[in-house]
C-alpha cells in the first residue's frame, strides 16, 4: 500500500469506530488529528493516550484507555503494512 492508501484505510477504521454514536462522518477533525499524531507516536500505548486526549478535548468525555488502545493497535497494524517504494 502507498501512503495515501494507508491513510485512507486508517481513516476508515476511525470513521467506523464511532465512539460517541454520532455517525461515521461526525469525526473528521479528530480523524485528521489522529492521522497527524501517527507520525510521532513510537508505540500503541503512546498513540492510545494521544487518541484519548484528542477525543476528550473535542467531546469533553474521556474514552476508556483500552478502547483507544485497540484502535491504536489497528492503526499501527495498517501502518505496518505500508511498503516503501522508490
Can you tag this structure with a few keywords?
single chain; 86 residues; mainly alpha; 0% strand
Explain what this protein looks like in three dimensions:
Helices cover about 65% and strands about 0% of the residues. With about 90 residues, it is mainly α. Helix 1 (about 5-15) crosses helix 2 (about 30-35), helix 1 packs antiparallel against helix 4 (about 65-80) and helix 3 packs across helix 4. It is globular and about 35 Å long.
The separation of the N and C termini measures 13 Å
Estimate what percentage of residues fall within beta strands. under 5%
Order of helices and strands: HHHH
Helix segment count? Answer: 4
The total beta strand count reads: 0
Helical/strand content category = mainly alpha
Helical percent range? 55-70%
Mean pLDDT: 91
Biggest sheet features: none
Q: Could you say which overall geometry the principal axes of the C-alpha atoms support?
A: globular
Task: Write a short abstract of this structure.
This protein is mostly helical and 86 residues long. 66% of the residues lie in helices and 0% in strands. The chain contains 4 helices and no strands.
Protein topology:
Layout: H1 3-17, H2 28-37, H3 44-59, H4 65-80
Helix pairs in contact: 1-2, 1-4, 2-3, 3-4
Amino acid at each position: 500500500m502507498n501512503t495515501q492508501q494507508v491513510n485512507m484505510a486508517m481513516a476508515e477504521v476511525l470513521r467506523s469506530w464511532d465512539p460517541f454514536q454520532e455517525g461515521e462522518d461526525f469525526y473528521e477533525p479528530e480523524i485528521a488529528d489522529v492521522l497527524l499524531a501517527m507520525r510521532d507516536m513510537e508505540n500503541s500505548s503512546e498513540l492510545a493516550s494521544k487518541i484519548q486526549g484528542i477525543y476528550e478535548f473535542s467531546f469533553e468525555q474521556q474514552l476508556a484507555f483500552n478502547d483507544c488502545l485497540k484502535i491504536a493497535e489497528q492503526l499501527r497494524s495498517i501502518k505496518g503494512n505500508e511498503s516503501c517504494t522508490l
